[in-house]
Amino acid sequence: MTAYEECLEGLLKHLDSMLPVCRELGIYILIDLHTSPGGRNTDNEWNLFKEKRFQNTFISLWRKIAQRYRNESIVWGYDLVNEPVEGIVPEDLMDWRELAIATIQRIRTIDTEHAIIIEGEPWGGANALIDLEPVPFDKIIYSFHMYEPYTFTHQNIYNNISPITYPDMVDGKIWNINQIRLSMKRVLDWQRDYNVHIYVGEFSAIRWAPGNSTYAYMRDVIDVFEENDWDWAYHAFRKWSDWSVEHIGDKYNTQTAPVPTDRQILLMNWLKKNQH
């Protein structure tokens, strides 16, 4: 067993320990392979699309995961890989769509019930999704991640720029709910063309955006998701404080807020509407 497989086994054992809690609380699980076998090379390229052995491992691991959870009703589905990036694929290797098809074929020999989620290449964004030709299987859900406009949602994570508000002019456009609606219309059109199910697997904005900007952005994108009847998940819960709705908007305050923030209240009010 490789170090990668040992790490994955440890994570799956932890997931197994949480299954009773999830059943009790009615929290459904989407298993996401967040890092692919092989990692990245020195050029920041995915080795999954550079070496055949990593593609074989990828398919084999999903067979094992499906075998492990095929009868688990609290598992909602399998997200094959997070934000795939194939780069230049050698002729003797599969590109992302081909690898997804081969993997789904293997999963379906074991598990015909769970949903399988596919993100577009590269990076799982809206444009990547609409460039993907749907795969010939049932119970497939197509996913994209919403961080547009990136200059606003990721401001001052990797650089130091003047604060950017929402709604406002960003990257030469007025970004408000109408622009958000327009930015996702291409996904809605693609969905209607192919009659498929859409799941927004991630969306967020950095908590220190000026004033009430992060709340306003979250409110508007959720409203558009709901208009389109899309499933969605917020990124992320207690993973990194800078995305957290449990922290105030001060970048340098890493303590959880003494009372729920407006962003937390917004999310909780929507999540209360879930029906099992």
TrEMBL record:
<keyword id="KW-0624">Polysaccharide degradation</keyword>
<dbReference type="GO" id="GO:0009986">
    <property type="term" value="C:cell surface"/>
</dbReference>
<keyword id="KW-0326">Glycosidase</keyword>
<dbReference type="InterPro" id="IPR017853">
    <property type="entry name" value="GH"/>
</dbReference>
<keyword id="KW-0119">Carbohydrate metabolism</keyword>
<dbReference type="InterPro" id="IPR050386">
    <property type="entry name" value="Glycosyl_hydrolase_5"/>
</dbReference>
<feature type="domain" description="Glycoside hydrolase family 5">
    <location>
        <begin position="12"/>
        <end position="236"/>
    </location>
</feature>
<dbReference type="GO" id="GO:0005576">
    <property type="term" value="C:extracellular region"/>
</dbReference>
<dbReference type="InterPro" id="IPR001547">
    <property type="entry name" value="Glyco_hydro_5"/>
</dbReference>
<protein>
    <recommendedName>
        <fullName>Glycoside hydrolase family 5 domain-containing protein</fullName>
    </recommendedName>
</protein>
<dbReference type="Pfam" id="PF00150">
    <property type="entry name" value="Cellulase"/>
</dbReference>
<dbReference type="GO" id="GO:0008422">
    <property type="term" value="F:beta-glucosidase activity"/>
</dbReference>
<keyword id="KW-0378">Hydrolase</keyword>
<comment type="similarity">
    <text>Belongs to the glycosyl hydrolase 5 (cellulase A) family.</text>
</comment>
<dbReference type="GO" id="GO:0009251">
    <property type="term" value="P:glucan catabolic process"/>
</dbReference>
